[in-house]
Amino acid sequence: MPPALTAPKTRALGLCGALVVALFAVAAFAPLPFTLTQPGVTADTLGTYQGRPVLTITGAPVRVTDGQLRATTISATNAGERISLRRALEGWLNEDEAVVPTDVVYPEPDPADAEQETARQMTESQDSATAAALNYLHLAPEQVKVAVDLGDIGGPSAGQMLTLGIIDKLAGNGHGGDLTGGRTVAGTGTVDADGRIGAVGGVPLKTQAAARDGATVFLVPAQECSDAKVNLPDGLRLVPVTTVAESVAALDALAAGGTVPAC
Question: Going by C-beta distance under 8 Å and a sequence separation of 6 or more, which residues neighbour residue 181?
Fold first, then answer.
């Protein structure tokens, strides 16, 4: 072999290079504290999900509705699952996926605790949605009872669409029509008992899920307008809202062909 290839410096450089390659090979498959998220399922709050009615209302007459009000979700790798560097890089390069720190998606590090927390958030969201809808309609919770069944969907982000579903089933647009105007409307956002709509995260993936399932309008928390415009599907109209009253007004304006806020 040529002397240059057997010199101590050359051998040292070769060894270092081999170590670097080995380190990259290990890093490519070593688990990282990130979670892979994708567009999830959507559920029509006016209809059924997994074969069961999403909303069951007693104590007041319930309307027959047209159109759809779809709550949107993201799908995420399990709380205890870690992804490799290679898989994370693939996710970052794919517009249909997002890679986020695991503790953002699952604040509770233990998988069982994380599952309990998402279930608790959904229960709280259902209670807030019922209170927001009944407050908007000036109905007493002692008279009207609402049961919500969204199956295995967890977290707080269905609040806005559950609220609108309850309002549509009980009162429609207030003058004989449907809130949807016959459209498929999707959206996201937390809600409190006073009808304030809050940010939730994951909006670019939720708009993809909405468009995939036929929505042409997406109600988005106003503070997330910029995020919602990232990779926005063609034909999906963003409508920013901060309260349930604004959401109802925007849907009324859409049905009447009026001016509607835009991101």
Answer: 67, 251, 254, 255
What sign for the dihedral angle of Cα 111, 116, 118, 121?
A: negative
Q: Which phi-psi region, left, alpha or beta, contains residue 182 (left: φ > 0; alpha: ψ -120 to 50)?
A: left
User: What is the structure's pLDDT at 14?
Assistant: 43
Answer whether 0.90 is exceeded by the pTM.
Answer: no
Q: What angle do CA 43, 46, 51 make, to 5 degrees?
A: 60
* Polymer length of the chain: 263
SS3 label, residue 91:
helix
Indicate the helix (H) or strand (E) that contains 190: strand 190-191
More confident site: 151 or 12: 151
User: 60 pLDDT exceeds 60?
Assistant: yes
User: 49, 148 in Cβ contact below 8 A?
Assistant: no
Q: What is the DSSP string of 84-118?
A: EHHHHHHHHH-TT-EEEEHHHH-SSSSHHHHHHHH
